[in-house]
Amino acid sequence: MHSSLPTAASLYDRVRRVIPPIEWPAFTDDIDAILTLRRERNAVILAHNYQTPEIFHCVADIVGDSLALARRAMSTEADVVVLAGVHFMAETAKLLNPDKTVLIPDLDAGCSLADSITASDVRLMRQRYPGVPVVTYVNTSAAVKAESDICCTSGNALAVVESLGAPRVIMLPDEYLARNIAAQTKIEIIAWKGHCEVHERFTPADIRELRQAYPNVTVLAHPECPPEVVAEADFAGSTAAMSDYVGRHRPARVVLMTECSMSDNVAVEHPEVEFVRPCNLCPHMKRITLANIRAALERNRHAVTVDAEVAGRARLAVERMLAV
Asked: How distant, in Å, are the alpha carbons of 68, 188, 281 from that of 240?
């Protein structure tokens, strides 16, 4: 799987624009150890777009948004999957790879959005709106997915909602994503009151101030931002869509209204673009470090398990999404 083993020294060139030389020595031992362990254990490391550059560009085999990681996890030949992201992502990887060992480097890498809803909440919504299909965002626990008809990501939410052929759908748990999708479709969307603690903090005033301070800045917003923020932005889309936008349009100056590390990771690929960074940190994503990725591989630490009955139903909701 890893034909020739790179070294930390050979990888610094990739990240020199976003990691100062003085900081690099702090990472090298862990990077070299992870690269060796990865090969010895036939492991694959999946890293979300919000991981820091030394993880994203130096030890990850597969990078991307939630949907990309879910899809690519299924095609790997690895025995061990290390999920450099948050807990619901590791659960999704386990759902799609029941025979693989899936490790999360820190058990406390949670998600404010996933924590905003429980399986019993979904059952109550079904009682309140009988017969209305439930679309659940992948940023949820396996138990919540198990109560749903189909999952979605921020990138495919509109397609998923419209694939159901229903006049109205329940869309959980992100209220802003639901409202942003509702603005693009005639289908009535019933929302829940969950929010992402990173994206809910952005305001239209932030964008206006940015435009004043940085003339001609292109503003890209994640659809978990409030609708008023999305309305002020030049483009709204998933982390993958934002990255694609930068690659396609090469704006001279851009701001990504999302988690901080995303700008660093995209900047590595586009040295010609100036990135303005009024971003917000996700405390959960930042729990994942090189040190705990290394510890996960060394000690088989924090294996993710999902109850078999829950897993079967949750897997169905994810597979229905992947088929859209």
From this structure: 8, 27, 18
